Amino acid sequence: HLIMMIFIISRLMSTIGNSKPLNTFLLPPKLLDHDVANKLSTYQDAIESASTDYGNIVKQNPVAVFSPSSKEDIATLIKFAYNCSAPFSIAAKGHGHSVRGQAMAKNGVVVDMMSLREQRKGSDGIIVSWNQYLGFYADVGGEQLWIDVLHATLEHGLAPVSWTDYLYLTIGGTLSNAGISGQTFRYGPQINNVYEVDVVTGKGELVTCSPHNNSELFYAVLGGLGQFGIITRARVALELAPKRVKWVRMLYSDFSAFSRDQERLISINGMKANITLDYLEGSLLLNHGSLNNWRSSFFPQSDFSRIISQIIKHGIIYCLEVAKNYDDRTHSTVDKELQVLLKGLSHIPGFMFEKDVSFVKFLDRVRSGEKKLQSQGLWEVPHPWLNLFVPKSRIIDFDSGVFKDIVLKRNITTGPVLVYPMNHEKWNDRMSAVIPDEDTFYTIGFLHSSGFNDWEAYDDQNKEILTFCDKAGINVKQYLPHYTTKEDWINHFGSKWETFRQRKDRFDPKRILSPGQRIFNSI
Ligand code: FAD
User: Fold this and answer.
1) Which residues line ligand 1 (CB under 6 A)?
2) Residue 522 and residue 240: Cα distance in Å, rounded?
3) Annotated catalytic, 165?
4) Interval 296-332: pLDDT, tens
5) Ligand 1 centroid distance, CA of 254 (Å)
6) Structural domain harbouring 467
7) What is the pLDDT of residues 173-191, one digit of tens each?
8) Could you identify which of 62, 83, 210, 252 might form a hypothetical disulfide with 110, taking C-beta atoms 3.0 to 4.6 angstroms apart as the criterion?
9) SS3 label, residue 488
10) CATH of residue 49
């Protein structure tokens, strides 16, 4: 397969790139019509950049990098691969913020979605509309970054409702996983706030799908880990954007009190009471570094020493984080409402901190931390992350077995550790994303940064955590999953495996797409 593919691509490159006579017998005529051959690059820098990701752990070279100008280009390339007697693999690479090579295509072709973003900037990449059935929505290219969606929709006084903590991720990249953040408890993940998507399937077909139209493909691609098609457009739900945000953090020494308060604040009954939070997360404070990591610098410098004293005294401090949006209309009531919501919480007295920031500053809160690390050369280090969904019924066991035992004993944890609950009913089980089978579950994110020589120590910790959960019968599901064996994938999907496999047979029968996930391809 590899030899065949190198042969075909080198023909494409040498014939078209160097304007030698074309060897058209190798190519379907449409490929030449669409002029896609000159969009393939085998230059070293293109290959290098397609063979790395944010994780900085996996490295796999494609044979070529494809820079499409349109969804038709992508369809032509996939159709070409599909019709080859020896199909080659193809991976869309969004912003490459995977941590385990998920957007790589060893010996295949990487589709550089960022080049499409560059070409569609300021044109048809993000279009805001309204209709009587959906209200306001945005049609957004799969290659666009969420930060661009934010700015483009704000020009109309609107914004999406469900976010990720970090906005320099593509629409296609987050929709292939779920897209979660502090809004998820209320609105569901980003995949739940999409009305329609355009997809190029593994057969090279261009399909528009929604819950009413080609619904099987719609549900397959949302949370589908890139396995069924390349998303070229998503219709994203919008609402009126607030102007500002009241942003509060409270510290706890007792995990039971912390999780009880989190669960109370996200409870469905609480939300029916009309006054609700707009965002809820939580994290661990383990040491000095966790007061001011890349997720956000929040606490006043003058309070550092008394917070550190609490960490030293208790070993771990749990930080509950909430936000409430407001605008000119709600300005006069927001403080009162926040007071009502936060009344009776059991945080450590005197350890509540509040900020009042613009909506954009709040949503883009991670960016300043990123820039700081980038300037110190610390953003492009290995990231041996572990993200889990843990059922609510076992979260206390998780705290004692993982946070209070493994994490404290090993004492290597760097970077944010996130802990916050969400509601099952805000997810859609027909979608490919996998979550625990309980009404409420927690997301736990170990967002480690390591040195180039010691990332394995973090991986060992990750393995120990997974083994602990396995032995204790805590039925966790990985988010942004990474497995190396088929058996692990089958376990991961559980009762959804059969549907996932059948959808693969239907939409990508030749196993062309996103081989870096290692679900159907054993690279
Ligand atoms: P890539 O890494 O480029 O691709 C990811 C996967 O999706 C690959 O399999 C790829 O082939 C496939 N893919 C890419 N584009 C498309 C497309 N158009 N159609 C179909 N498949 C496609 N996630 C959250 O949910 N919440 C967070 O708060 C959050 N914060 C993060 C913060 C940082 C600093 C980082 C590095 C990651 C974070 N993530 C978060 C994880 C992130 O959502 C995923 O890694 C996401 O896949 C990254 O998007 P990307 O554009 O970089 O995708």
Assistant:
1) 53-54, 91-98, 102-103, 113, 142, 164-166, 169-170, 172-174, 176-181, 225-226, 230-231, 480, 514, 516-517
2) 46
3) yes
4) 679 999 999 999 999 999 999 999 999 999 999 889 9
5) 34
6) 244-479
7) 999 999 999 999 999 999 9
8) 62
9) helix
10) 3.30.43.10
